Amino acid sequence: MDRSWIKFIPDAASTMAGKVDALYFYLSGVTLFFTLLIFGVLIFFVIKYRRRSPFEIPRPVAGSHKLETLWTVIPFLIAMSIFVWGAQVYFEQARNPAGTSEIYIVGKQWMWKVQHTTGQREINELHVPVGRKIRLVMTSEDAIHSFYIPAFRLKTDVLPGRYTNEWFEATKTGTYHLFCAEYCGMNHSRMIGSVVVMDPSEFDDWMSGNASQLTPAVAGQQLFQSLGCVSCHGANGEGGRGPELAGLFGKQVVLNTGQTLKADEAYFRESVLNPQAKIVAGFGPIMPTFQGQVTEEQLLQLMAFIKSIRVVNPQPSTASPSAAGSASPSRGGASPAPSPVRTASP
Ligand code: CUA
After folding, report:
1. What does residue 5 show for φ and ψ, rounded to 5 degrees?
2. How far apart are CA 27 and CA 33, in angstroms?
3. Which is the closest atom of ligand 1 to the Cα of 110?
4. Hey, which of 80, 234, 326, 329 has its CA 20 to 30 A from 138?
């Protein structure tokens, strides 16, 4: 593993690392340039305009619009260049790109618990493949933590009661530091670990090496049964007394208030822990809360299960001979919006 050429800069091992560094060097360069310029001019003027006799009276200085415009416009342009460039890098990091694979992270005083979609679990270690985009879905069981991988130039708060994301694509194999970067109690400084970046083939071996463990989706399916979710949402989330869950993630949901929202991770979490908060149109407030009955890891497993179930049958209504004539089914009905209830039996 080759070290960085400047020792006080960590390894650069992700696609974002170079971009963050370039911006940082630009900021440092601008700061250094103006520090030297200001102090240079200051020292020069102190010498040049020093008082030469005790009776000397300085000449009065009239203002200069040209000069004032210049020293307003130039710093403005420099500040805007930092802003625009910084925003670009920020948005690239903040937006999750397409085609990522997910890894679940739960922070806890004082360890990092990692769960891969194939069922592998790790503590204070994170194995990832080089050259693939990885998205972390993170939450905390207790205090606020912060998941920090300096070599990836990546740091995101991990909060109780919420999911936060970060993504990266490692560019170099090796072992890198993992820190908690938010003071979270007595052993905060020991809440450290390592990120192991492996060759993709080596990583796939590692992932298949421990296949006895349940995948989060399968563990979630078992929870879905044992917690009794099936009695309202169906064994495969096909809906009934509760809204349909198959294929729900990422879709738009219409609530009984008429409001529409995207079914994302935050919505899922709230719907399990505080089901009365947002009720899907057409359903009553009958779901009990599961607050205190599921751990953070189990919530992630339930979510993995719901993400994994797809609509099995693409055409919802069994082909009835009377409907065969209408070529476009969307024109036939009077309802303008797609109904959340699929099981239509006239
Ligand atoms: Cu967790 Cu500091």
Report:
1. -70, -25
2. 10
3. 1
4. 234
More confident residue, 85 or 236: 85
Three state DSSP letters for 227-287? CCCHHHHCCCCCCCCCCCCCCCCCCEEEECCCCEEECCHHHHHHHHHCCCCCCECCCCCCC
Contact between 198 and 130 under an 8 Å Cβ cutoff? The reply is yes
The CA 269 to ligand 1 mean position distance, Å, reads 23
Which atom of ligand 1 is closest in space to residue 143's alpha carbon?
1
Q: What is the pLDDT confidence band of residue 6, given thresholds at 50, 70 and 90?
A: low
160 alpha carbon to ligand 1 midpoint, in Å? 12
For residue 192, report the distance from its CA to the centre of ligand 1, in Å.
9
Region 222-240: mean pLDDT is 79
pLDDT tens, position by position, 269-314: 888 888 888 888 888 888 888 888 888 888 888 888 888 887 655 5
Q: What gap in Å lies between CA 147 and CA 157, rounded to an integer?
A: 6
Could you write out the DSSP letters of every residue in 186-230? TTGGG--EEEEEE-HHHHHHHHHTTTTSPPHHHHHHHHHHHTTTH
Residue with the nearest Cα to atom 1 of ligand 1?
145
C-alpha Rg value of the chain to the nearest Å: 29
When pLDDT is cut at 50, 70 and 90, the band that residue 333 belongs to is very low
Distance 153 CA to ligand 1 centre (A): 18
Give the position, in ligand 1's atom list, of the atom nearest the Cα of 183. 2
* Confidence grade of residue 210 (pLDDT, cut at 50, 70, 90): low
Average of per-residue pLDDT across 165-191:
93
Measuring CA to CA, which residue among 315, 309, 343 is closest to residue 329? Answer: 315
Task: Place 156 in a pLDDT band, splitting at 50, 70 and 90.
Answer: very high
**What are the pocket residues of ligand 1 if the criterion is a CB atom closer than 6 Å to any ligand atom?**
107, 110, 145, 180, 182-184, 188, 191
CA of 139 to the centre of ligand 1 (A): 12
